[in-house]
Design goal:
The protein is about 25% helix and about 35% strand. The protein has about 150 residues and is of the alpha+beta class. It has one domain: Hotdog Thioesterase (Thiol Ester Dehydrase, Chain A), CATH 3.10.129.10. The protein is elongated, with a radius of gyration of 18 Å. The protein starts with 11 loop residues before the first strand and ends in a 7-residue tail after the last strand.
């Protein structure tokens, strides 16, 4: 298990591979983001992107899954305080394959609860061409090792 003390500013990691299908884009959008350019191929052709594209929330969900299966898998995570600077850089389309890249930007011990630290990490979702499709800064809480001994 990796605790707060094991994480260093500047740590980077690349992880995962997730293939996005048309059926998955349609299913997600129909339930959570039913805009025509996410749910209707013909309507999408006349929209801003010119084709069917995944909801940005779908893209974020895929990257979250890759994050949990990757860098967070062996981390003493206590959840997150939020997300800053969420950006959708370019659309995700059927057939894209996504991976993630993370970089630890900042860390500090909580002033109100010495058993945890705050770790701010930039995440980038990247497609098969190496293009960044989404990014955010996750504001994670991570357990500290032996914090009760202080």
């Amino acid at each position: 298990m990796h605790y707060y003390e094991d994480i260093e500013i500047g740590d980077t990691e690349e992880f995962g591979e997730y293939h996005v299908t048309k059926d998955e884009i349609l299913t997600f959008a129909e339930q959570y983001d039913p805009q025509p350019f996410h749910t209707d191929e013909a309507a999408a052709e006349d929209a801003a992107f010119g084709q069917l594209v995944a909801s940005g929330w779908h893209t974020a969900s895929i990257c979250m899954r890759l994050l949990v299966d990757g860098p967070m898998q062996d981390r003493a995570s206590m959840g997150a305080r939020g997300v800053d600077e969420l950006r959708w850089h370019q659309p995700v389309t059927p057939g894209d394959t996504l991976s993630i890249r993370t970089e630890v930007l900042e860390k500090r011990v909580s002033e109100s609860d010495r058993t945890r630290g705050y770790v701010d990490t930039k995440l980038e979702g990247i497609n098969q061409d190496g293009d960044v499709v989404i990014s955010w800064i996750g504001l994670e809480m991570v357990a500290r090792r032996n914090a009760g001994d202080e």
